[in-house]
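Shipment paperwork, digital attachment
Item: protein structure file
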Amino acid sequence: MIVTTLLGSARKNGATATALGLVEKELMSMGHDVQQIFLNNKEIKGCIGCCACHKSPDDIACVQKDDVIEILEQMISSDLILFASPIYFWGFTAQIKALIDRSYSLVTGYQSPEHHSLLKGKRIGLLVTGGDSYENNAESMFIAHERFVDFLYAEKSGELYIGGSDLSVEVPEEIRDKAVALAQKLVS
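Attachment content:
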């Protein structure tokens, strides 16, 4: 299986990257081809809402020329896409949110009989890290992710929230086990 992971943290070696690395290691040990994209190093402009992308259902017809087109092409060529983000003010980081907004160009005919998605049937997962508990903190990210996956006509394949752990110091065995379980669920 071809797996693309999207690291949405500004820190290449922070808690989210550490947790994502555990999932990636497990996926590779199972024989999957894993390719990570560190979004903070990419030029990702915000969606301008022009809807030009909806004129061509079989192509990424976004008028903006930045790194998003290449990222979306890699997502389309993947079997599984894993979004990984820390919580910033009860939501996704700007890096991931901008990419999600630009994913609008992958869908045409939303909520009509002509609803078409270039990611239809793809497996999509979510890994979130945060300093606090899930309650009153992370719920909105998981709700938004579920709606995003539905919009894409994709398949929600697994999700994990890791809260309250400073993974830069030490990764508890419980977190390692959860990361391994997520990897297995994503591909099962």
